[in-house]
From TrEMBL:
GO MF, any single term: peptidoglycan binding
Residue ranges with Acidic residues bias: 71-82
Basic and acidic residues composition-biased segments: 83-93
Protein name: SPOR domain-containing protein
Location of the SPOR domain: 113-191
One Pfam family in the UniProt entry: SPOR
InterPro entries the UniProt entry points to: SPOR-like_dom, SPOR-like_sf
Biased composition (Low complexity): 52-70
Chain spans, region Disordered: 30-116
Length: 268
């Protein structure tokens, strides 16, 4: 019974709210705010009286109209520009167009004497500074642009070793100490200028060889790292040249061994 009473009460409340919402008076339209003191209220043309309309029409008819001018504001200058365009054989409409102005700017800004490289190449290598200077002097008048470039050749690798011992027995004793310290990768050289020396490995990079030397020295072994092969520096001359440049003749005149093609973007 209580549940039914609650349901009936809710239905009655809903019906009452719906009835109030349907019968409520309409909301009043918002009023137009009053203008500040001394400021007249704006009126539409339809709201004005016939006398005010007639007065406004008479004032508009009495005012003189100024002649139209272009963005430059000088009709005479525009007329002169049109006349010049006709004398030059162009359409006056094209004289002030962006394409016409850009074409004139390109024609005036172009430099016919500007040298544009047709190709670029490298001549070399030069091992001596004297031969490089002679080649530069010979090629300078023929090139539009010339620069020197160094190429450093790295060693083939690095080796770690212990210097030669007094005899084979001393080398074997050191080898046993190396094995006891955990360095099993070693070999005793048997002949040559480095007989009885102990090789402790080859490495492709200097950093790895130096780390191995540091570990050996920390264990009490006087190891050393030496490069395999010599490190050399060779010089090249990079040139930007124009049409008609004879690369073979320039290579002969410079005393270069080779002439190789080069991307001109690398010279900028």
């Amino acid at each position: 019974m209580l549940l039914r009473a609650l349901i009936v009460l809710l239905l009655a409340l809903n019906l009452g709210v719906a009835l109030w919402w349907a019968l409520r008076p309409p909301a009043a339209a918002p009023g137009v705010p009053d203008p500040p003191p001394g400021v007249p209220r704006l009126q539409l043309v339809e709201e004005a009286s016939p006398e005010a309309r007639a007065t406004a029409a008479g004032v508009a008819a009495a005012e003189p109209q100024a002649p139209l001018a272009d963005a430059d504001g000088d009709p005479a200058a525009d007329a002169d520009a049109d006349a010049d365009a006709r004398n030059a054989g162009r359409d006056p409409a094209d004289a002030d167009s962006p394409s016409g102005r850009s074409a004139e700017g390109r024609a005036e800004g172009a430099d016919p004497s500007a040298s544009v490289p047709a190709r670029c190449l490298s001549l070399g290598p030069f091992d001596q500074a004297a031969s490089l200077a002679a080649a530069r002097e010979a090629l300078q008048p023929r090139a539009l642009h010339l620069r020197e470039r160094e190429v450093v050749s790295a060693p083939r690798g690095w080796r770690v070793m212990l210097p030669p011992h007094a005899d084979r027995a001393a080398a074997q004793a050191t080898a046993q100490k190396l094995g006891a310290a955990g360095f099993d990768d070693h070999f005793i050289l048997a002949e040559g200028a480095e007989a009885n020396a102990i090789a402790l490995g080859r490495f492709s990079g200097e950093a790895a060889a130096r780390r191995h030397v540091a570990a050996l020295r920390a264990a009490g072994f006087a190891a050393q790292a030496d490069p395999l092969g010599e490190t050399s520096v060779r010089h090249w001359l990079d040139l930007a040249v124009g049409d008609g440049f004879d690369a073979d003749a320039a290579r002969t005149a410079a005393g270069a061994q080779r002439a190789e093609a080069l991307d001109c973007a690398q010279l900028r």
